[in-house]
Amino acid sequence: MIGRLFSNVSQRVPSLLYRASLTMKPQVVFVLGGPGAGKGTQCSKIVESYNYTHLSAGDLLRAERARKDSESGQLIANYIKEGKIVPVEITINLLKKAMEETMHKDEKKFRFLIDGFPRNEDNLRGWNIVMDGKADVKFVLFFDCGNEVCIDRCLERGKSSGRTDDNRESLEKRIQTYLQSTRPIIELYAKTGKVHTVDASRSVDEVFADVKAILDKEG
Questions:
Q1: Which residues neighbour 185 within 8 Å (Cβ) at sequence distance 6 or greater?
Q2: What is the mean pLDDT of each run of 10 residues along the chain (219 residues)?
Q3: SS (H, E, C) 31-74
Q4: Distance between CA atoms of 55 and 130, rounded to whole angstroms?
Q5: What residues contact residue 105 under an 8 Å CB cut-off, 6+ apart?
Q6: 3-class DSSP state for residue 195?
Q7: In sequence order, which residues have a C-beta less than 8 Å from that of residue 25 and are 6 or more positions away?
């Protein structure tokens, strides 16, 4: 009798743990900064050292643009070419899908670096509506870098990246979009004490040393 009881309990525990994992909300860090600030590079280094999954809003949009049967592909292409911000519904659905797929494959993968989002007030409003109660934003990791340094880095990257927006004309548009639309979002989060700012004009290793100190403190 007691043996059967313990057997039943031991069988139920894994299923209870599994159900708990399904209700685990994604823990999110928004990674923001101008084009060329090194967001992608630093996210890759974070993933190597910490249990985070890197989701680049830009990469997800470019992948969707390239997908043959995508209904939004041409629309995304037009927005990216003009350096404009893609409609929020498209971006959030791609991010939400990517997080769900990641957590479905591995229940321990519930910490996410969302790189390049939210880029404006519309993005933030959309996130708050769609993801309210479904994800916890821990803080914003802000890579602060001068405009000319960012442009020079992107032009150098453009020699091998194959990205259509790594040219001076698109970059200047993207910088203006960033200054007008994204910086106010960073300032908004700063008022709530949720922004960690890193001087991103330095070398990759110097920047990552500061990033590590932040993540070690935040846990």
A1: 32, 118, 119, 120, 121, 123, 124
A2: 44 42 82 94 96 94 90 90 87 94 94 95 94 95 93 86 80 91 96 97 97 93
A3: EEECCCCCHHHHHHHHHHHCCCEEEEHHHHHHHHHHCCCCCCHH
A4: 17
A5: none
A6: strand
A7: 110, 133, 134, 135, 136
* Type of residue found at 207: V
Give, as one character, the DSSP assignment of residue 180: I
Q: Residue 36 region, left (φ>0) first, then alpha (ψ -120 to 50), else beta?
A: left
Whole-number pLDDT of residue 23: 61
Residue count of the chain = 219
Tokens of 79: 């927005």
Q: pTM for this one? A: 0.81
Give me the torsion for CA of 65, 69, 71, 75, rounded to 10°: 30
Nearest-angstrom CA–CA distance, 77 and 88: 15
Tokens standing for residue 192: 């709530």
How far is residue 84's CA from residue 193's CA, in Å, rounded to a whole number?
Answer: 29
